[in-house]
């Protein structure tokens, strides 16, 4: 004999769990959209370096992103929401971006570098604290790990070694 009462309770419990999960996902999506909008508005909104919105928030890797006319904003709870654009964004995405690289998510917006108003840099939240550094003369390059630590100790881009001219390699 089938206990129809038990089946109805199980269906209700399952339905309630689905509703809770859906509500949690909607809350997370709203918090993410809010964080991205706050970063965008703080940077100047449509007048910022990334320009106007060009799409909705989407999930990528362990976080989220949103495309803008001239860049993207990425969000991951431990890193926050940060703007990337230009050659720094291009390099980040060429290395796999937030979904397929081991750089992690940006933990600062792209900002001017130390070697002049035309240089740019952003850092990322991977455990080795990588950076992507760009100048119009040398292009965009990733610096990370022990090389990044040594480079920083020597003054970074404004120090003895100057700006990177290629990615790390292991010959």
How would you concisely characterize the structure shown here?
The chain has 171 residues and is α+β, with helices and mostly antiparallel strands.
Task: Report on the architecture of this protein.
- The protein is of the alpha+beta class and 171 residues long.
- The protein contains 4 helices and 8 strands.
- The strands form 2 sheets. Strands 1-2-3-4 form a 4-stranded antiparallel beta sheet. Strands 5-6-7-8 form a 4-stranded antiparallel beta sheet.
- A hairpin with a 3-residue loop joins strand 7 and strand 8.
- The chain is globular and about 65 Å long.
- The chain starts with a helix and ends in an 18-residue tail after the last helix.
Q: Work out the oligomeric state of the chains in this entry.
A: single chain
Proportion of residues in extended strands: 15-25%
How far apart, in Å, are the first and last alpha carbons?
A: 72 Å
In total, how many beta strands? 8
Shape: globular
One letter per element, helices H and strands E, the order comes to HEEEEHHEEEEH
Major β-sheet, in short?
4 strands, antiparallel
Mean pLDDT: 88
Task: Specify the number of helices.
Answer: 4
Radius of gyration using CA atoms only: 21 Å
Structural class: alpha+beta
In terms of per-residue confidence, which ranges show pLDDT below 50 for 5 or more consecutive residues?
none
Percent of residues in helices comes to 25-40%
Question: What topology, given as strand order, has the largest sheet?
Answer: 1-2-3-4
């Amino acid at each position: 004999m089938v206990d129809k009462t038990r089946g109805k309770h199980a269906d209700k419990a399952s339905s309630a769990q689905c509703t809770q999960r859906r509500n949690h996902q909607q809350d997370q999506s709203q918090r993410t959209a809010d964080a991205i909008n706050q970063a965008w508005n703080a940077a100047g909104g449509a007048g910022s370096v990334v320009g106007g919105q060009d799409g909705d928030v989407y999930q990528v890797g362990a976080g989220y992103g949103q495309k803008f006319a001239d860049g993207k904003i990425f969000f991951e709870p431990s890193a926050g929401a940060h703007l990337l654009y230009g050659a720094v964004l291009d390099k980040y995405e060429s290395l796999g971006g937030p979904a397929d690289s081991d750089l992690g998510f940006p933990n600062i917006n792209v900002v001017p570098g130390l070697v002049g108003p035309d240089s740019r840099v952003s850092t990322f939240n991977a455990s080795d604290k990588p950076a992507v550094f760009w100048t119009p003369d040398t292009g965009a390059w990733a610096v990370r790990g022990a090389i990044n630590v040594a480079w920083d100790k020597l003054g970074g881009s404004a120090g003895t070694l100057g700006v990177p001219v290629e990615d790390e390699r292991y010959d």
